[in-house]
Design a protein that fits this description.
The radius of gyration is 17 Å and the shape is globular. The longest helix is centred in the C-terminal third of the chain and has 17 residues. The chain contains 8 helices and 9 strands. The strands form 2 sheets. Strands 3-2-1-4-5-6 form a 6-stranded mixed β-sheet. The chain has a 3-stranded antiparallel β-sheet with strand order 7-8-9, with helices on both faces. The protein starts with a strand and ends in a 16-residue tail after the last helix. The chain has 261 residues and is of the alpha/beta class. The protein has one domain: Ribokinase (UDP-N-acetylmuramoyl-L-alanine:D-glutamate ligase, 3-Layer(aba) Sandwich). 36% of the residues lie in helices and 23% in strands. It binds pyridoxal-5'-phosphate (PLP). It holds the Pfam family Phos_pyr_kin. It comes from Sporosarcina aquimarina. It catalyses: 4-amino-5-hydroxymethyl-2-methylpyrimidine + ATP = 4-amino-2-methyl-5-(phosphooxymethyl)pyrimidine + ADP + H(+); 4-amino-2-methyl-5-(phosphooxymethyl)pyrimidine + ATP = 4-amino-2-methyl-5-(diphosphooxymethyl)pyrimidine + ADP.
């Protein structure tokens, strides 16, 4: 049977991140991808030039249209942009509590553009984190969500526990932004206390655009196929390592990770 996943995210016209990265990753991992668009970005490998959010009612209508008909077995959220969109997404998803939900708390693009308004952070914490199966913050996102700075493995553990207290069933805290270590070390922890570290060699490349979206989409695809959360994060870690290693030299800025790696 065909497995189906839904991504609720923003469009990257440059094709490296957002909805485009999610759908390509789903396809690559053998999952049929569906989507609900939250915002349109005019973007290329150099950065974000413009952002136009979608009317929240239209975001809700897309989610409902997909979930009322297609047999979706995992959902991911990416760029949500505003408090209004977050509230309506949470409202729609509350009716489907049995579908695993991966929340990638996207905040700022590599070039510095804001993909989440400051006043929307509270709604993300209050409305979406409590219904998440897994949240996948990177270090800067975890610092914003917890208000704590993270410089070591111990700091990562403290932050992961603080984020779990906001209600998600599990967290994957991505350590790729830490500069004190020569590897990318991610911490997986569940609300039940299970935890493990995943470590990979740091790859020196400018072609990392869309890394976070691709990682979370790969986890979502594996969940859609019925794999356990633990197996999904391990498979996705291998996938994202290969995608960065195989990053594509495209455009004049940060080329994309290779979704077909
Ligand atoms: N654009 C969209 C629509 C995104 O969802 C994201 C990340 O989630 C980005 C851009 C940022 O990508 P990056 O920071 O990897 O360049």
């Amino acid at each position: 049977m065909t497995s189906v996943a839904l991504t609720i995210a923003g469009s990257d016209s440059g094709g490296g991140a957002g909805i485009q990265a999610d759908l390509k990753t789903f396809q690559e991992l053998g999952v049929f991808g569906t989507s609900a668009l939250t915002a349109i970005t005019a973007q290329n490998t150099l950065g974000v030039h413009a952002v136009q959010p979608v009317d929240p009612k239209t975001v809700a209508a897309q989610i409902r249209a997909v979930l009322d008909d297609l047999p979706v077995t995992a959902i991911k959220t990416g760029m949500l942009f505003s408090d209004e969109i977050i509230r309506i997404v949470a409202e729609e998803l509350k009716s489907f509590p049995s579908i695993p939900l991966v929340i990638d708390p996207v905040m700022i693009a590599k070039g510095g553009a804001s993909l989440l308004q400051n006043e929307a952070v509270l709604a993300l914490c209050k409305q979406l984190l409590p219904i998440a199966t897994l949240i996948t913050p990177n270090i800067p996102e975890a610092e914003v969500l917890t208000g704590q700075s993270i410089h070591s493995e111990e700091d990562m553990e403290v932050a992961a526990k603080a984020l779990l207290s906001m209600g998600p069933s599990a967290i994957l805290l991505k350590g790729g932004h830490r500069e004190d270590v020569p590897f990318a070390e991610d911490l997986f922890m569940t609300a039940d206390g299970e935890h493990f570290l995943m470590r990979s060699k740091r790859i020196a490349t400018p072609n990392t655009h869309g890394t976070g979206c691709t990682f979370a989409a790969a986890i979502t695809a594996e969940l859609a196929k019925g794999h356990s959360l633990e197996d999904a994060v391990v498979t996705a870690k291998h996938f994202i390592h290969a995608a960065i290693e195989d990053g594509i030299e495209l455009g004049n800025g940060h080329g994309p990770t290779n979704h077909a790696a």
